[in-house]
Amino acid sequence: MSSKDWIEKDFYAVLGVDKAASADDVKKAYRKVARESHPDHNPGDPKAEERFKAASEAYNVLSDSGRRREYDEMRSLFGSGAFRRNARGGGQPGGMPFDVSDMFGGPGGGDRRFGGAGFQDLFSSIFSGGQAGGQAAARGPARGRDVETEVALDFGDAVRGVTLPLTLRAPGVCDTCHGNGAKPGTQPRTCPVCHGAGVTTRDQGSFSFSEPCRNCQGVGTVVEEKCPECHGSGGVTKTRTMNVRFPAGVADGQRIRLAGRGEPGERGGPAGDLFVHVKVRPDELFGRTGDDLTLSVPVTFAEAVLGTDLRVPTLDGAVTLRVPPGTPSGRVLRARGKGVVRRDGQAGDLLVTLDVVVPARLSDEARTALESFAEQTPPAAREHLDARVRRVS
Ligand SMILES: [Zn+2]
Ligand SMILES: [Zn+2]
After folding, report:
1. pTM above 0.70?
2. Residue 261 · residue 312 · CB < 8 Å
3. How far is ligand 1, taken at its centre, from the CA of residue 130, in Å?
4. How much distance in Å is there from the Cα of 276 to the middle of ligand 1?
5. What is the DSSP letter of 182?
6. Distance of CA 266 to the CA centre of its chain
7. Euclidean distance between CA atoms 240 and 243, whole angstroms
8. Which end of the chain is flanked by fewer CB atoms within 10 Å, N or C?
């Protein structure tokens, strides 16, 4: 969370509440949006995921009366959109209300439409001697980072859903100090500078600004005797194994978010999220288009002409499909409900494409029969092509 985000984002609009909304109304509104946009209820819908994240971010600020006040002040001082420039991805994890590097972009970053030297001077003076751009958090311990990993699923597992153990080698909470960073037998102490708030307030002309407490790096507590295992960070690298449930119908390229299963936060801060990118191994028989499975079935010319009953495999058994007489090559037959079962219990179809096969070799008898067939068959309907050929030659 940076000041740029604070200025650009309208957290009230995200939650659909009035600026004067009570804490209770904010909570109710957040719960409603979170319920509606929860990734579990909207699998594979990036818009819902985006909305869910935005709501969490908005609630994170508006639910904390101190941060809400800071946010309101920021926006009334600088006006929403006053600093608008090209958006540059999401905010950093962890709060950082005044991050100069983010505010003004790196080398060549963003267009600087916001009024020239005046503002820049104001900010650079606020931050003279500051430790901007560090890992400090505004309030409380920093949130853990998100972790990304990739999993390859078998085709059938992806269609039916599967639970798999997932092993990650990633930072975890230190078992020795349980993540608070203090040597066993000791406790982190409330920071004497900020009295646990994690922020200090400075006056700048007629404004007063909050910034992360430098004594505790915004955590609100200080560790006097550091844990020997993690050297005070609260985290160590571990191998974690967890069971991950992949819902039925998960698709190749889909990303599954497991909230709170990413890296733990510093010294007991909230954990990041785990994002699992799903790869689905192709099946030797079946293809997939959305909720439908696809299958190609070779048929002879005689079967296509005379009609037949085909016995074809599905993912869980077999079905009989009627090929009516006179069916052209490429015709798609549909076995209803034999596709991918969706979350709502409905299933897609199995789409069977008929592929009329031309034999490369014929027995003498077959050749004789075919020649006799050809004699008794009218020529193919090519008159329109023949007419063009005559005109151009
Ligand atoms: Zn430790
Ligand atoms: Zn402090």
Report:
1. no
2. no
3. 29
4. 28
5. B
6. 24
7. 10
8. C
